[in-house]
Amino acid sequence: MSGSLNSIYNNINYALNQHMMAMAKLQEQASSGSRVNRASDDPTGSYQILGLKSQQELLGNYIDNISSASDTLQSSDTIVQNIKQSLAQVRNVLSQVTSGTYSDDARARTAEQVDQILEQVVQYANSKSNGQYLFGGTSTGTAPYTVERTDGKITGVVYNGASGERSVEVAPAVTMNIFSVGEDIFGSNDRSAPVFSNVTGAKAGTGTSNVNGDVWLTVINDGSNYKVSIDDGLTYTTVPAGGEANQAVTDSRTGKVLYVDTTGINQTGVELVRVPGTYDVFNTLIAVRDTLKNDKGLSTDQLKQACNSAYNSLDEVINRVLQTSVTNGTKINFLDDLKTNLTDLKNQAEDQTSAVEDADIAQISIDLSRQQVLYQMSLSVAAKMMSISLLDYISTSTTQ
Q1: CATH 1.20.1330.10 is right for the domain spanning 53-186+311-345
Q2: Residue 119: its pLDDT value, please?
Q3: 248-251 — which CB contacts under 8 Å span 24+ positions?
Q4: What is the pLDDT averaged over residues 230-241?
């Protein structure tokens, strides 16, 4: 009888524990709202949930990258728009100067105005977004532009940034150039042959010059030979008798070379030489300022010609900046569309995760109620099975 009672007790205890474990699991699901709280609850579902949550995290990272990239591009575009407006302002003023309505004093005041705009444009070009410089390419930790000054005035602007753009991954196998190379935005790189203004008889040589923007060619005669300079007379190159078809004239300040056909030089003077396709924002503004100041003592006709040349130079750099603005706008629109698509994918992954993971509270309530009834019934049955009197036990034992 003892063995039978132990067997009955063990079976009842096992059955009651199973009921309690089932109820505990249902109560946990009801309180957490999750059907799968550990891998053992549903190994297959746990594997699906793990994959879906990894996908959500990856998409979330890409969405964050897109938001950061969009903010950076928006900041960059704002700066580019400000620079474009500043250049347009200078161009409008310059057009009024070339009309002949400005006196020398008015021209000098305008030169100071252009100088202030130049200072502001340099600050724009050294702008930051989230602590990173916008126009230094991959070099985002240091200012991309430094200035050279003479008597407090900017006489040169030097690019110190990187030559490659910095990219950000915004989707699987999709990168976007965010931090631009300042030289590509604020300058042109489509060099054409130098254009001489036909003042001294000098012409373009056959070599490929590397000077940029506007160059002033100064021609003097020492009584025996002509001499030419492109560094405002700091150094001169002697023209041999009869001249040369391709004479190199070097700027001692920069090391840049202008190749000049000196065979046709027939008089002294100061001549403007334009190199289309090489203008940048900063040197163009410097040239406009210096032209308006007329430190070279140009005649009225020469000054007008120089102003017209500067106007064309401004057109070139404004068009370059405008192209950058259009490119930024295209990138921003692309990122907006991409962000929408990735957000939709992330939402779909979240819905799929919920379908696998979330508990059906209504069904759990029904199952829990049914389990509690079964547990109460089991307890009742167990109580009856275990209620054996001492007399029944003795009788059973005696019989055996």
Answers
A1: yes
A2: 96
A3: 248/205, 248/207, 249/217, 251/211, 251/215
A4: 94
